[in-house]
Design a protein that fits this description.
The protein contains 5 helices and 2 strands, in the order H-E-H-H-H-E-H. It is mainly alpha-helical and 207 residues long.
């Protein structure tokens, strides 16, 4: 009587996991315990937003942006008043005189628009540069914490599907950042220059 051929059962997920664990335990590669990788996690989002430095920059940016908007609104109000005055005095002015005033007013409007755009770009550039300094200061701190824990790798927990909260050292890195990184340079409002004076009585402001 011939030998009975056994039909292998299909592999299950449990079988695959068991074989993988068995292979690691028996030393496929031979160094499971010796090569165990120690991992730490941090929240990059928190590191970039929750330090004292980041909060100070955000507060200053909000305040300066609001002040800039107040200045822009004041200039707009002044220009609107000039425009209304031009409309009021139009019947009393010679055509050429009125056309000259309108042309001067249009130049002022364009100049004020460019100035406001320049101020806004200055704000953005200054704060972007200061935030970049904070980002650059993170790398050596992360390396310091990794070495202190004897870890092999530090992962961004914001991009990890699941992890043990005990591996998270974000608070430690933030505390180290606050204690060792020089504070950011918060720009003074003078960086934006003096607030433009609106024109009065139908006359355009000096160029």
């Amino acid at each position: 009587m011939g030998a009975i051929a056994l039909i292998p059962k299909p592999w299950t997920r449990r079988d695959a996991v068991a074989l993988a664990v068995l292979g690691l335990g028996l030393g496929l590669g031979g160094r499971a315990a010796a090569d165990e990788v120690a991992i730490l996690t941090v929240s990059r989002k928190r590191l970039l937003n929750d330090t004292i430095h980041a909060r100070a920059l955000l507060k200053a940016e909000i305040e300066l942006t609001a002040e800039l908007q107040r200045r822009v609104d004041a200039v707009k109000a002044g220009l609107a008043a000039v425009e209304q005055e031009l409309a009021r005095v139009r019947p009393t002015l010679d055509r050429e005189v009125f056309a000259a005033r309108v042309a001067a007013f249009d130049r002022k409007v364009r100049r004020q628009r460019r100035q406001a755009q320049k101020y806004a770009a200055t704000l953005q550039a200054v704060f972007r540069a200061e935030r970049l300094k904070l980002v650059e200061a993170l790398d050596p701190l992360l390396e310091e914490v990794r070495e202190a824990h004897g870890a092999s790798i530090v992962l961004n927990v914001d991009q990890v599907l699941a992890s043990d909260p005990a591996l998270d050292v974000t608070d430690q890195v933030i505390a180290l950042f606050n204690a060792t990184v020089p504070p950011p340079t918060v720009p003074d409002l003078d960086v934006l220059g003096p607030a433009p004076a609106p024109a009065q009585d139908g006359e355009p402001a000096p160029e």
